[in-house]
Amino acid sequence: MSCALERFFESHTHGVLWSVPHAVAVWRVAGAPPFYMMEPHACGPTGLRVDAQDDGAACVLTFTSAKLMAFA
Predict the structure, then answer these.
(1) Disulfide: which of 6, 11, 25, 34 matches 38 by Cβ 3.0-4.6 Å?
(2) Which domain holds residue 52?
């Protein structure tokens, strides 16, 4: 997955990653941190997905590299 994300960002600045039944938005910008992932489903305080019945909100995670993003 990390190689695929690195290749993706070589020619794209943003996109939607979809793996049924989940989807996340990813984008890259100049500056620090350069990589972002938006999880539109309920997340807990750590940014990990939680049951929709629990308290949670959509969240944006930041990463210093596409490789680290792949492990989210």
Answers:
(1) 25
(2) 1-70
